[in-house]
Design a protein that fits this description.
The complex is a heterotrimer of chains A (about 270), B (about 300) and C (about 450). Chain A is mainly alpha-helical and about 270 residues long. Chain A has 13 helices and no strands. Chain A has a single domain, classed as MetI-like (MetI-like fold).
């Protein structure tokens, strides 16, 4: 009995710890700067969406959102499709010099090293290719960053699918690729979905490379755009809060919609 | 002589040529992109790290000078210290809290699904926004802590201007953001453990602490270790949150290696020196990861 | 099983096709986004960092530019902390996203040394016009016309690569009910009268300043240092800030000045400094104009009407730090001729007068002569300019030097003593840094 009350209390505490900060930001986004800095209220006394409207009409947040959607979608699709193919090759084939093992291991290594290590070289590369502040530059970068992780995840999913099924299809006359498409892919679908979800979240939220590789609303992503408001002197708290809400909302909604797969993917990744 | 997959028989001869080349074709695009965007820049960065840059242009070769200079640079050493302390403290707290929560939620109870849903949120919110959330909490003139303090009759909360408190504030932010990850992984780990050993132990009359120490912990070992290693590696690369929360300040109190490297490259225009810094950082983390893997291997065998 | 899976099937072909077409359309669209290279009669893209000091320009001058000069100004703002890197990257890569950068003046050496800016003098802007505030227009030349030059530029001909845009400098904001005879003339007077004010219960602290390590503390210390007669570098870039004058300034800063300030001053940044004066606790602060103008707004301050502006106090001289917005045109500007024409129009005496009326500090002396300046700080600014106003040393490495100095000063401030030793320590570090950067070869 006590245990049940205790569990309830702990659960309530967790809810509070998670939601109180978020509530505070959401509340601030509905206040005016004066109310935030001077009146110090616990909830907005005259809630209004002015801050959001300001961001969308004056601060180019509509552009940031568009850029984020395009860049995320393109790079995730590319990384997933190319990565699945590569993962399949690693999982199924034995090449000369065990090439597939080398590729697999290198991709894993690249996954381990924090991306910050290649921040400057990638910037210099995009500078040379004249791809700074373009969608293409970001897409290429994000695709590469996602590839290592997509290959790693899909490889283990492919390995779980018994080869016999493919063999059977090939005996029946399918080519390898046809067998892959008809048999393997559908079976690996949950893996694809989990990987895709991860990649979408990580790519949408990416900030560091966006900071360095973009400069104008032509290519700046949502996280990068949100940072234009952080300010050191004379901070526009209300706008900053609204920017925070706008920046977080798409991904949070997305994550809540797919949470079952998300949790499964997270834990599977670690348990493997 | 050719070594294609011996296990799978080739289909009809139609497309046999394609089959031979198939694995290479499948690998090619990924390898190409990875090479262009990851490997080549890495190599470029290595080359840049041996040069001396001025006003954005390389002036001359200096060999390993940049690397040596790092270790007598008090600002680098400070960054290293700050980073190691941050990672150590944050990951330790996240692991302990995550483990405690996981143990607590082990047995399904009403609302656990809701709890899991709720706990996803801190993890998926854009890290930049998490920093905004916490700036709104810590800010001395407009933040939540100040508001609460003033309502209680006290003065403004001074967090981000104070070196130690800003550092703790950063740790709290990371704990808030990532404990759910540890919780979810450890919970899944716990739930995947076989129940017989526990039943047997309980029948034997062992108390909860005993069970935990002798059974839970050892069996959970591998999962725990992986979670810690993954989280640690990611924590070393923390950038977004620090950049937005404190930009490395006040002074150097929260200047993690990533921020120091960024400043060195882009604010102070010492591109070569920064490249050397990042290579060093990468090597350190790689060494850490390899050591961890070696440790795990040994545990597994034992 | 197959039913469920069929719904989820990601056929390789469709995936690849979709991915390829997405990538292709992205490539096409990104190409579309590039600015047109043809001049479209008056378009000017200006990059600026968010700062209250630009509000009059934004609100009053941009519309004027349209109506008077048919200039179509696109004003792109970003946060101060990222603009330097962003614009430098743009200039270096030749990406051509901006026509004009509104730089913070300490950035000019870096851009100048990288040789990425257009020669505005050759483009038709008269740098020799005597109407310019001398100390401001000096900052637009690279290499600087006076003073030490960094290595590699000793013999080069100074070119005008930037023109002052909006003036800004430190002035004193003080309580006129405490300093009843006008602005305190000396530092001692500031503290003495301040103490009387504290005793009378009008204020809590004679002075409040910023103590956070780095740019904030160095900026606060600057006027003290300069007024004691300190100099940062000599002609050969040898460090001289730890001279006797410098050490005296540092000791005064971490001693008597700190004792007249709040306990937590070592952690203060502009938020707290501003709150102290506007909330009525501080007898005086030294600040740039951005926050100064809140002094008259009853919604922003509890002591409206009791705050006045004056020249900073002196020891030997009264010298404040100057930090202006300075406009430059990258060589890769897409609408270069428009940009230069815009700058010519903007810096004309007529427009400068309008700028002053709108409430910003102008950059030409004639602008100060308007009948109705937009705020009462402007005449005081002219007084300070004439009394003494110096920018930060003209070197691309100032950011690093400032950081090293700021860390040591902050330590001394925390301890409340050891100003001289801090300067020596900083001098050593700065010398080492400049040495490895090739300054002394």
């Amino acid at each position: 009995m006590i245990v049940r009350i205790l569990k309830g209390l702990v659960a309530a505490l967790i809810l509070l710890v998670v939601f109180l900060p978020i509530y505070w930001m959401a509340a601030a986004s509905l206040k005016s700067n004066k109310e935030i800095t001077q009146d110090a209220t616990l909830y907005p006394h005259e809630p209004s969406f002015d801050n959001y409207l300001h961001l969308l009409s004056d601060r180019q947040f509509d552009a940031y959102l568009l850029n984020s959607l395009v860049v995320t979608a393109a790079s995730v699709v590319l990384a997933l499709s190319l990565g699945s193919l590569a993962a399949y090759a690693i999982a199924r084939f034995r090449l000369r010099f065990r090439l597939e093992r080398i590729v697999g291991l290198s991709l894993l290594t690249l996954r381990i090293v924090p991306a910050v290590v290649i921040l400057i070289p990638v910037y210099l590369l995009m500078l040379e290719l004249k791809l700074l502040d373009t969608w293409l530059g970001l897409i290429i970068t994000y695709t590469a960053l996602n590839l290592t992780f997509c290959v790693w995840m899909m490889e283990s999913f492919f390995r779980e699918i018994p080869v016999d099924l493919e063999e059977a299809a090939m005996v029946d006359g399918d080519s390898r690729l046809a067998a892959f498409r008809r048999i393997t892919l559908p079976l690996a679908a949950p893996g694809l979905v989990a990987t895709a979800i991860f990649a979408i979240i990580v790519t949408f939220n990416e900030f560091m490379f966006a900071l360095v590789l973009t400069a104008t609303p032509r290519a700046m992503t949502m996280p990068r755009g949100t940072a234009t408001l952080i300010g050191r002197i004379d901070t526009d708290w209300a706008s900053m809060a609204a920017a925070g809400v706008m920046g977080a909302l798409p991904i949070v909604i997305f994550a809540l919609l797919v949470q079952r797969h998300l949790v499964r993917g997270l834990t599977l990744g670690a348990l493997k | 002589m050719k070594q294609t997959a011996p296990v799978i028989s080739r289909g009809r001869s139609q497309g046999a040529g394609l089959d031979l080349a198939l694995p290479y074709l499948l690998l090619a695009p990924s390898v190409l992109i990875t090479f262009i965007v990851l490997v080549y820049p890495l190599w470029d960065g290595l080359k840049a790290s041996t040069k001396f840059y001025r006003y954005g242009k390389p002036l001359r070769e200096v060999g390993l000078d940049n690397y040596l200079r790092l270790w007598s640079d008090s600002q680098f050493l400070n960054s290293l210290l700050v980073t190691v302390s941050f990672v150590g403290l944050a990951v330790a707290i996240e692991t302990l809290l995550g483990l405690a929560l996981a143990l607590f939620c082990q047995r399904e109870f009403r609302g656990i699904r809701l709890l899991r849903t709720v706990l996803i949120v801190p993890m998926v919110i854009t890290p930049v926004v998490v920093a905004i959330v916490f700036r709104l909490i810590y800010a001395s003139d407009a933040g939540m802590l100040t508001t609460l303090s003033e309502l209680a009759g006290g003065g403004p909360a001074q967090i981000l201007g104070h070196p130690t408190r800003a550092f703790i504030g950063l740790v709290v932010l990371d704990v808030w953001e990532w404990t759910p990850l540890m919780f979810l992984i450890l919970l899944a780990g716990l739930q995947s453990l076989p129940s017989e050993p526990f039943e047997a132990a309980r029948v034997d009359g062992a108390g909860p602490w005993r069970i935990f120490r002798d059974h839970t912990l050892p069996m959970l070992g591998p999962v725990l270790a992986i979670a810690i290693v993954l989280r640690t590696i990611d924590a070393f690369g923390t950038f977004d949150q620090v950049f937005v929360l404190t930009r490395g300040g006040p002074g150097e109190a929260t200047r993690l290696l990533s921020v120091f490297g960024y400043d060195t490259a882009f604010k102070f225009q010492q591109t070569g020196y920064a490249a050397a810094l990042f290579v060093t950082m990468g090597l350190m983390i790689l060494a850490l990861a390899l050591a961890a893997v070696r440790l795990l291997r040994r545990e597994d065998v034992a | 099983m197959n039913d469920r899976l069929l719904n989820r099937r990601l056929s390789r072909r469709t995936v690849l096709q979709g991915g390829a077409s997405l990538a292709a359309s992205a490539a096409v669209l990104s190409g579309l986004g590039k600015p047109a290279s043809a001049q479209t009669g008056g378009k000017v893209i200006i990059g600026a960092f968010v700062d209250g000091g630009l509000a009059p320009f934004k609100n009053s001058i941009i519309p004027l530019a349209k109506s008077e000069g048919n200039f179509d100004v696109e004003f792109l703002e970003d946060e101060y902390g990222v603009t330097l890197e962003k614009w430098f990257a743009d200039a270096q890569s030749g990406a051509g996203q901006y026509d004009i950068y509104l730089l913070d003046d300490p950035w000019v050496p870096q851009f100048g040394a990288a040789d990425v800016l257009e020669d505005l003098g050759a483009g038709g802007i008269a740098g020799g016009d005597s109407d310019w505030i001398a100390s401001m227009i000096d900052m637009g030349y690279w290499p600087p016309r006076e003073g030490p030059r960094v290595k590699g530029f000793e013999g080069a001909e100074p070119k005008l690569i930037a023109v002052p845009f909006v003036g800004d400098l430190q002035t004193l904001t003080y309580r006129n009910d405490v300093h009843t005879n006008g602005a305190p003339k000396t530092w001692d007077e500031l503290i003495e009268k301040g103490k009387e004010g504290v005793a009378a219960g009008k204020i809590k602290y004679p002075i409040v300043f910023r103590g956070v390590a780095g740019n904030p503390i160095v900026t606060s210390w600057y006027p003290v240092f300069l007024s004691f007669g300190g100099q940062f570098f000599d002609d050969k870039w040898n460090v001289t800030f730890n001279s006797d004058a410098g050490k005296a300034a540092a000791d005064f800063f971490v001693g008597p000045m700190k004792q007249s300030a709040p306990e937590g001053v070592v952690e203060f940044d502009s938020d707290q400094e501003g709150a102290a004066i506007l909330g009525g606790d501080a007898g005086a602060i030294i600040q740039y104009s951005g926050n100064a103008l809140k002094a008259d707004d009853p919604a922003q301050t509890k002591v409206a009407g009791k705050l006045d502006f004056g020249v900073v106090p002196k020891k030997e001289k009264a010298i404040a730090q100057m930090g202006i917005f300075i406009a430059s045109v990258p060589k890769s500007a897409p609408n270069k001729s428009n940009a230069i024409a815009f700058l010519n129009w903007y810096t004309s005496p007529a427009t400068q007068a309008k700028l002053a009326e709108a409430g910003s500090i102008p950059v030409k002396r004639s602008g100060f002569g308007v009948e109705k300046p937009g705020n009462r700080l402007i005449p005081v600014a002219l007084q300070q300019l004439d009394a003494g106003c110096l920018p930060r040393p003209r070197t691309p490495d100032w950011a690093k030097v400032e950081e090293l100095l700021g860390i040591e000063l902050n330590k001394a401030l925390q301890a409340g003593s050891g100003g001289g030793a801090a300067l020596d320590a900083a001098a050593q570090q700065v010398t080492d840094y400049l040495k490895q950067a090739g300054y002394y070869q």
